[in-house]
Each structure stands twice: as structure tokens, then as C-alpha cells.
Design brief:
The chain has one domain (19-229). Helices cover 72% and strands 2% of the residues. The chain has helices at residues 19-47, 53-78, 90-125, 129-155, 175-181, 183-195, 198-202, 208-229; strands spanning 157-158, 171-172. It has a two-stranded antiparallel sheet with strand order 1-2. Helix 2 packs antiparallel against helix 3 (90-125) and helix 3 (90-125) packs antiparallel against helix 4 (129-155). The chain is globular. It starts with 18 loop residues before the first helix and ends with a helix. The relative contact order is 0.13.
């Protein structure tokens, strides 16, 4: 069984080159991410708050996101990303396989760091025992899934070198099943992180309209925080 079952595929009806569009999209997302982090840092400075572990985690997620963006741009320029597989040289196929594996390892780390950062921040805001248990459980789920998916990505094909070298005979698991299962816990924990503070907000002593507005702000802020680091 040959390894590169997940190398780029395209049909003859697709455009032969999407490199320019891909680079613009990645750069635009990086700019939005940078603006979001800058706003967070500015807020910290204005309030003279101490830098906490959640700040370090979100900064780590940002550094990884920058590295991933740079790697994707490299893949576009040197590894045939966005081009027909038939048009790639062997060296480009190998480079693509290496970038694909590295990106598949970076992305879960970015997601996990961002989610844990948000949960630690929420745990500091809502100090009730019930919410602390919920937040700690979600943190454990996120960390365990990150470890599990990292191991699965690395060892879905053995030997590991077969991820990027199409000439090496490989024994591979079900890559399609892994691709389907992988995002499910991330999506579920996304909703859990966004909805977890809602019962606490609803118990606040304020008018219903104010509670609804505050809940909406938390939802919007949470959505932005997570999509910003993705």
C-alpha cells in the first residue's frame, strides 16, 4: 500500500493554479489574528492587569498560527499547494507531504492552546464550584483529545517517513475515518466553551434585557477569540 493517499487531488475541471488566491486568504486571516491579539494586549495595558497563564497560552497559539501561515505560504510557492497533482515534480510531492504532516500536527496544538486559554480565563471570572468543575472537565477533554489526535496523525501510516515519501511501502489506517472524526470533539468543545458561562450570566441580578445583551457579548467574544486563533 502506498502512502500518499491524502496528497492533493483535483479534477480537470478545476483551475490549474490557485496560489495567488490562497496566499491572499492566509495573509488576510493572519492580519485579523494579529489585530485580535493586539486588542487583547492593549486591553491588558490599559487595565494594568498582570499577564496570566491564559495570556501565555493565547500568545503561544498565535506564534503557532504565524508559523503555520508561513509554512502554508512556503507550500504554495515550493510544494505545489493549490496546483494539479499531475503537474507536480517528485520533489514537490515530497515537500507537500512534509508540510501536510507538520500542518496536521500544528493545527490541533493551536486549537487546544486557544480553548484552554479561554477556559482558564472563564474559570477566573466565574468562581463557583460548579463552573470550576465544568471548566476543568472541558480542559481535560481538550488536552486528552489533542494528545490522541496527535498520535493518530503521526502513526496513521507507518513507517512515519511514508507520510511524505510515495516510494516507501506503507501500512496505513483509515485516513478518511480519521478526517471525519477529528473535528467532532473540537466542534463540540467549541459549543461547550461558548455555552458554559450562560447559566452564570442568567443568574446575575440585572434586567433580562441586560442579561441577554451580556450573554450575546460573551458569545460574540468567544466566537471571535476562537476563530481569531484558528
Amino acid at each position: 500500500m502506498m502512502a500518499p493517499s491524502f496528497y492533493p487531488r483535483s479534477s480537470v475541471d478545476e483551475p490549474t493554479n490557485r496560489t495567488g488566491l490562497n496566499i491572499r486568504v492566509y495573509c488576510a486571516l493572519l492580519v485579523l489574528t494579529t489585530l485580535g491579539l493586539a486588542a487583547r494586549v492593549a486591553s491588558k495595558r490599559l487595565k494594568r492587569n498582570h499577564v496570566m497563564i491564559d495570556d501565555y497560552l493565547i500568545l503561544w497559539a498565535y506564534v503557532l498560527a504565524v508559523a503555520e501561515t508561513g509554512m502554508l505560504i512556503y507550500a504554495i510557492q515550493h510544494a505545489g499547494w493549490g496546483r494539479h497533482l499531475a503537474s507536480l515534480h517528485t520533489s514537490e510531492v515530497i515537500a507537500f507531504g512534509k508540510v501536510l504532516l507538520a500542518g496536521s500536527l500544528l493545527q490541533p496544538c493551536i486549537l487546544a492552546s486557544a480553548k484552554v486559554s479561554i477556559l482558564i480565563l472563564l474559570r477566573r471570572i466565574f468562581i463557583t464550584r460548579g463552573f470550576q468543575r465544568v471548566a476543568n472537565t472541558l480542559i481535560a477533554v481538550v488536552v486528552l483529545w489533542y494528545l490522541a489526535i496527535t498520535l493518530a496523525v503521526v502513526f496513521i501510516c507507518t513507517p512515519v517517513k511514508s507520510h511524505w515519501d510515495p516510494e516507501i511501502p506503507a501500512h496505513c489506517g483509515n485516513q478518511y475515518l480519521l478526517d471525519v472524526i477529528d473535528p467532532i470533539p473540537w466542534i463540540v468543545t467549541d459549543f461547550a466553551v461558548l455555552l458554559a458561562p450562560m447559566p452564570m450570566i442568567w443568574k446575575l441580578q440585572m434586567a433580562t434585557g441586560q442579561r441577554v445583551a451580556l450573554g450575546a457579548l460573551f458569545l460574540i467574544g468567544g466566537l471571535y477569540e476562537q476563530t481569531d486563533t484558528i
